[in-house]
Amino acid sequence: MNTTLDILLNRKSVRAFEKRPIEADVRTKILEATLRAPTAGNMMLYSILDINDQSIKEKLVKTCDDQPFIARAPMVWIFLADFQRWYDYFIHSGVDEVCAEREIEMRKPEEGDLFLACSDTLIAAQNAVVAAESFGIGSCYIGDIMENYETHKEMFDLPPHVFPIAMLVFGYPTQQQKDRKMTSRFDEKFIVFENKYQRLDRDDFEEMFAEREKSLPQGKAMRGITNFGQNFYNRKFASDFSMEMSRSVREMVKAWIRGD
Ligand SMILES: Cc1cc2nc3c(=O)[nH]c(=O)nc-3n(C[C@H](O)[C@H](O)[C@H](O)COP(=O)(O)O)c2cc1C
Question: What is the CATH topology of the domain spanning 3-181+218-258?
Fold first, then answer.
């Protein structure tokens, strides 16, 4: 048996946890695997906040779109895309003085650096997910950590070139979570293309969403909504939390570029 494939093909997000804590040696192994993730230029462009203060977990429930299971997770890690450490190191190394002598402006972290740091950070986060699974520990990403930038900046003392891109909550799954059906995925033909990108047409979408269409609630509550696309747009894409996430990310990007 290929245990790695077994883990990857059977993983599902876990949102209800046993009261059991995560053992210290297991946490250490998960962290080691996380820090071994590939990283651009071997720079490790991320930091991890290990949230073990229960009152902070409770606050995160509120600032991350009211998701109470965050506070019930025995291990909560916030993944920060981080160029601050390298930029501070450049200053510490006297790069600013060399630039001044040469009469050139010292480059600050820009958009490309932000995306590179986000890539590094998410790759490390996924290593944590897989390592945790290997110990029977489930996890769930919380994308809403990108909301409420100003609040999180203050809560965690975030400097400008640090960007909270993901949060992971971990814990041993309850029996109900273990038994829960896995979610489906779109057929690979809609996702994987040969050599060139392919935009999908009407027929493709009908086929691609046929299964999800069946999950659409029926009845009065639908208020004129007739299909999965309309429902998903309203419920997720144009929801208050999506709008807040966009606003918050816009402010974070501005702060990253300005450096304040
Ligand atoms: C970037 C990202 C953000 C997510 N944010 C949340 C979240 O805020 N709350 C939540 O309950 N699940 C969140 N999830 C979990 C997804 O809902 C879940 O992965 C998806 O529904 C597929 O289910 P599965 O992971 O069980 O296969 C997130 C997943 C990703 C990758």
Answer: NADH Oxidase (3.40.109)
